[in-house]
Amino acid sequence: MREFIGNFSAYFTAGCLGGVAYALALWAMGHHGFTRWLGVDIAPYLSNAYLYQRIVWGGICGLIFLLPWQKSWLARGFFLSLIPAGIMLLLLLPMRGYGPGALSLGALTPLVIILACAIGGIAASGLLRAQGK
Question: Is the keyword Transmembrane in the record (predicted)?
Answer without folding.
Answer: yes
